[in-house]
Description:
Layout: E1 2-7, E2 10-13, E3 40-50, E4 55-65
Antiparallel strand pairs: 1-2, 1-3, 3-4
Amino acid sequence: MQLKILRGKQAVLTPPEIVVPTGKLSPYTGEFPLSALPPGNYVLELTATDRTRKTSATQQLSFSVY
């Protein structure tokens, strides 16, 4: 799973890619420092990749920092 914070089309925060265990369903949680971002509009982009099936899905969510 890869998480990115975008401002416009540029990634401003890209934590390391993580491997999510698939043995049993469990929610994944994580944190990233919004205080490091200047005020503005951003997009949270999450990409999950299934390396076995060689497929991926991406979801985006817009948010603002004031």
